[in-house]
């Protein structure tokens, strides 16, 4: 038996102004994307924004439904819309932000497991790392690749 370790490193920024220009634009788009949220049940408004290899940004927001499982998270809304709009382009990065009644949380919004799995597949499809930017009012986290938030990615089929 040997003890194995998985090391994860990420960057923390004190504000959106510390991000590079492209990431700042994406983070801003995620915050603005919160306005597209339809969350009459949780009142938790999430916005997401995906940057494609052609430089285009596609936004998404969580959409809830009275039949709860029929709703969808902001990140998947954004990724599915981006893939449908630019089927021959790859995703470079994704940012997300969220908050109750549209007021952004102090801590960064972190994506659910199902959204991480979907990110993983688009990263595999792209064949290069896709960065994930989690935006909060007090700090922002940047992970260089999806593996860092979903170690031991399933992509064996
Ligand atoms: N939600 C997202 O949009 N993204 C996540 O990563 C986690 C949760 C949404 C789903 C639901 O509409 C609301 O937040 C509360 O869970």
How does this structure look, described?
It is built from three helices and six strands; from the N terminus they run βαββαβαββ. The protein is an alpha+beta fold and 157 residues long. The protein has a single domain, classed as Cytidine Deaminase, domain 2, CATH 3.40.140. The chain has a six-stranded mixed β-sheet, sandwiched between helices. A hairpin with a 4-residue loop joins strand 2 (44-52) and strand 3. It is globular and about 50 Å long. The mean pLDDT is 97. It binds tetrahydrodeoxyuridine (THU).
Oligomeric state, counting identical vs distinct chains: single chain
Measured by DSSP, the beta-strand proportion falls in 15-25%
Structural class estimated from helices and strands: alpha+beta
Spatial strand sequence of the major β-sheet: 1-6-5-4-2-3
Radius of gyration: 15 Å
The name of the CATH topology is Cytidine Deaminase, domain 2
- Described by the principal axes of the CA atoms, the overall outline is globular
Q: Write down the CATH class.
A: Alpha Beta
Largest sheet: 6 strands, mixed
Total DSSP E strands: 6
Compute the number of helices: 3
Assigned CATH architecture: 3-Layer(aba) Sandwich
Helicity level? 10-25%
Report the span from N to C terminus: 28 Å
CATH superfamily: Cytidine Deaminase, domain 2
Bound molecules: tetrahydrodeoxyuridine
Task: Give average pLDDT, whole number.
Answer: 97
